Amino acid sequence: MKPSLERVSLGFFPTPLHELKNLTRIMNGPEIYIKRDDYTGLALGGNKVRKLEYIMADALDKGAEVIITTGAVTSNHARQTAGAAAALGLKCQLVLSGDEPKTRQGNFLLDYLMGAETYCVKPEEADRQIDVLAAENTGKGQNTYVIPVGGSCLPGIISYVDAYQEIKEQYPLEFDAIVMAVGTGSTCAGLNVGARMAGHKTKIVGIGVGLGDREWCQDEITRLSNLAEDFLGTAPSSVDQIIVFDEYMGSGYAIPDDKVRDAIKLLASSEGVLLDPVYSAKAMVGLLDLIEKGYFKKGEKILFLATGGCPEIFGFNHFLS
Ligand SMILES: Cc1ncc(COP(=O)(O)O)c(C=O)c1O
Prior knowledge:
Layout: E1 17-19, H1 21-27, E2 31-36, H2 47-61, E3 66-72, H3 76-88, E4 91-97, H4 106-113, E5 117-121, H5 126-139, E6 144-147, H6 154-170, E7 177-182, H7 186-197, E8 203-208, H8 214-232, E9 242-245, H9 258-271, H10 280-292, E10 301-306, H11 311-315, H12 317-320
Parallel strand pairs: 2-10, 3-4, 3-6, 4-5, 7-8, 7-10, 8-9
Antiparallel strand pairs: 1-2
The chain binds pyridoxal-5'-phosphate.
């Protein structure tokens, strides 16, 4: 039996998996399916709810009273952590890189509504701010648990190893590829390990969103895959099973371009599916281009992982309208 980790219930699982029939017809290429991890439920959902079910179980086990995490001011991870902490009756402190916005909108608004304390700092000051807050909490006798950026830690990766099993139960045939956005790479790493454990040849295709180039993403996904494989006692996966494209990141992280806007409009108007401008729409730009270029072909079955992030549609309202 493979080693497993504790899980606390925070979201709604399994998330739906269905075909995007209109998009498949429009693209006239492979059959395109979508896994709705934008529907994980808690606090408007997203891939972090899946990770947090495992991470928060570890936090509770360690007697946490205060949860600290970090990310950009627009962070989806921070918003879902605020929701998880609220649901579990824990205090939440968010150390957010970037200038404090003049008005609260998107994720930053939801952080506030869910009762999280927010500290906006320069990126290079984030670690020090976390240490200061943790020391203050200790001084007050409060036990602090720090979640790394993006929930990129062993429990987070394992949640996506298990997500692969969920996909396999919903769709017993093997997908030719699963396509998703790469931030920290832990979602990709978990699915990669899950696919190898299932004995599947499914390609795990990550689309970089601007946090690093192809080599950096590939190294991170390999390192995080190996972390999970060490824990699970399975053979390390080889680098060529992980495919990363970094040509769809445009001008950089959280800078959407016209192609991102077109992808958001296409999915919204053809399927009623809402993608976010920072992660999932960039991944969709990659998927559409790879179909147009013939990398994904007619007869293949491709799964797109919708990872959430919808609140930032409102953060980017001027750009999108
Ligand atoms: C909406 C969305 N998609 C994808 C990702 C990337 O996930 P990972 O950090 O596991 O690569 C994130 C991470 O913050 C996200 O918020």
